[in-house]
Amino acid sequence: MNVLLLLLILSFASTIQCDIHTNRIEDTLSTEANDTNTLCKDHLQVPEKVRIDLYYESLCPYCKQFYVKELAPVVQKLMNYIELYTYPFGHAQMKKNDNKTTFECQHGPTECYGNGLHACAIQYLPKMSEYVPFNTCLMEKWSTDKDAEQCGQRLHLNAEPIRTCANSDEAINLVIYYAQETEKLKNMSYVPYTVINHKVMDPETDLIDSVCATFEKPPQECKK
């Protein structure tokens, strides 16, 4: 009886350890964490995930098309198999004068505001299943306050905190973060700029094909 109890305790402890390391993988991309995930995957049946990083601008025509026609369908189809990080900044420039931060955007001040609106949506709709449809709706329009209100109504989401954020210093601080993350890229010469599992995606290929080709064992959704 004691031996059986000991085996049950050891089995439970093993499960807890795998759970802990699995959570670490969602927050970090270290080699050690990924190695641990491989060891635990069979035990917990954790789905393999592909990381997507998208750098874009709110009014760039190509970005709008990519977000609506490629990113949104991939998120809808492969939501359980991807980790998505989006950076609404693109080729904007950040300037600091007298402790004040300002931005200059390729498509003017309206785009700078739109970038902030997108950043606030990501902040206040942290679930990928919420902020991607919301920002997709904005990309179908012009990323204005009115558009945010209409997108909120369409998706049955409260857009007021997002609009309030976009009209405050909070948006500036969020965009500063996305500017700093974008500046870490050394060779971003175009947008939308997509990185899949730390490798730059060929802009001539479809996102769904590139993501599915990255899996070691593609999920059934890739075969449909």
Mean pLDDT: 86
Number of structural domains:
2
- Can you identify the CATH superfamily of the largest domain? Glutaredoxin
How many strands, which pairing sense, and closed or not: the largest β-sheet?
A: 4 strands, mixed
> From the alpha-carbon coordinates, what is the Rg to the nearest angstrom?
20 Å
CATH class of the largest domain: Alpha Beta
- Total number of strands: 6
The proportion of residues forming helix, as a percent range, comes to 55-70%
Architecture of the largest domain in CATH? 3-Layer(aba) Sandwich
Low-confidence stretches: 3-43
Please give the order of strands in the largest beta sheet: 2-1-5-6
Give a quick rundown of the structure.
The chain contains 9 helices and 6 strands, in the order ααβαβββαααααββα.
What structural keywords apply?
224 residues; four-stranded mixed sheet; two-stranded antiparallel ribbon; 2 domains; Glutaredoxin; alpha+beta
